[in-house]
From TrEMBL:
Keywords: Isomerase, Pyridoxal phosphate. Belongs to the alanine racemase family. GO terms for biological process: D-alanine biosynthetic process. One of its GO terms (cellular component) is cytosol. The lineage of its organism: Bacteria, Pseudomonadati, Pseudomonadota, Alphaproteobacteria, Caulobacterales. Pathway: Amino-acid biosynthesis; D-alanine biosynthesis; D-alanine from L-alanine: step 1/1. This is Alanine racemase. It comes from Brevundimonas aurantiaca. It catalyses: L-alanine = D-alanine. Its EC number is 5.1.1.1. The keyword Mitochondrion does not apply. Its cofactor is pyridoxal 5'-phosphate.
Length: 343
């Protein structure tokens, strides 16, 4: 039975993006597979990336680390970006996960369970997680990663990038021997002086451009398609969907498509959203509802059972995101569990 809505994941394209990032940065690529690999499936993605040579992964939460450890076995190094919350240190340690420590109470929690391999995060300006450089701990046994995170890596001309890079280099010099990592996807494209010893891309592996728009170097990985459930002729002056979200000023042919906000196709798509169908990009008409949305297929040869593409090889993820007033990251991670993944 074909699935009404389906997220197809091209693991060969994922592998190509991995090798592209290696070539661009000249550094080992440590994939970020948090949030179930941005919704694409962490187990499938990380397994393939291991085959391509990845040896170290990043997740956000302890639970994500536990699931990944169970899926991948003992070989890969897995860092948890959240660090270790109160009570989680023992769990991380037992599963051979490495916290990225970001404040003194996490240092204490980790040492209370005996310490061991871990990282620290230095905050160089994002003001999110991490120690200010002047508050960073003395070098200690087990510390093998020093990292920071860029605030504006998707804006190459933003002077803050260089300031963060230089602050990171100075802070990291206190910890000779630890792996230094600064660059996320955007950072991978700022120049090799941002690569340091390892890079941590996420979205570019999964097909998002490093600057929030299509980039020819990055291949599409995820394709969201949905089935046409009904095709109807709507007369002039009739409306479509809840709240008369679209009122026809001429006769239109509309395809009702099996993708709604319960699948992760946000209501925001209703304004300016579009999908690829039968060789053309066509606008959505009216509101997105829970299970369906409606597409203008006037003049096209579209039948029940045809599939339309919300994003993918024909409708770029970044363009789809921009049309919905958001970014590729949110579009991908919003795709719900109701939508099967096919590899
Ligand atoms: C999410 C995240 C990344 C990956 O970011 P992308 O922009 O998707 O490449 C890297 N480092 C940290 C600390 C993150 O939180």
């Amino acid at each position: 039975m074909p699935s009404p809505a389906l997220l197809s994941v091209d693991l060969n394209a994922l592998a190509r993006n991995f090798h592209t990032l290696e070539a661009v940065t000249g550094a080992p690529v440590h994939p970020v597979v948090k949030a179930d690999a941005y919704g694409l499936g962490a187990e499938a993605c990380a397994t393939r990336l291991m085959t391509e040579g990845a040896r170290t992964f990043f997740v956000a939460r302890a639970d994500e680390g536990l699931a990944l450890r169970a899926a991948l076995g003992d070989a890969p190094v897995i860092y948890v970006l959240d660090g270790c919350h109160d009570g989680a240190a023992g769990v991380l340690k037992a599963a051979n996960l490495r916290p990225v420590l970001n404040q003194p109470r996490q240092m204490q929690a980790w040492s209370q369970v005996g310490g061991g391999a871990c990282g620290i995060q230095i905050d160089t300006g994002l003001n999110r997680l991490g120690f200010r450089p002047e508050d960073a701990p003395e070098p200690f046994e087990g510390l093998d990663l020093i990292m920071s995170h860029l605030a504006c890596a998707d804006e190459p001309n933003q002077p803050m990038n260089r300031r963060q890079r230089d602050a990171f280099e100075i802070a990291a010099a206190r910890y000779p021997g630890a792996t230094r990592s600064l660059a996320n996807s955007g950072g991978c494209f700022l120049g090799r002086d941002y690569s340091f010893d390892a890079v941590r891309p996420g979205v570019c592996l999964y097909g998002g451009g490093p600057q929030g728009r299509p980039d020819v170097r990055i291949a599409a990985v995820a394709t969201l398609t949905a089935e046409v459930l009904q095709v109807r002729d709507v007369r002039a002056e009739e409306s479509i969907g809840y709240s008369r979200g679209f009122v026809a000023d001429r006769p239109v042919r509309a395809a009702v498509v099996a993708a709604g906000y319960a699948d992760g196709v946000m209501r925001a798509y209703g304004q300016g959203g579009a999908a690829w169908v039968s060789g053309e990009i066509r606008p959505l008409l009216g509101r997105v509802s829970m299970d369906v949305c409606t597409l203008d297929v006037t003049g096209l040869d579209v039948a029940v059972g045809d599939r339309v593409e919300l994003f993918g090889a024909n409708r770029h993820l970044d363009e789809a995101a921009a049309a919905a007033g958001t970014i590729s990251y949110e579009l991908l991670t919003a795709i719900s569990d109701r939508v099967p993944r096919a590899y």
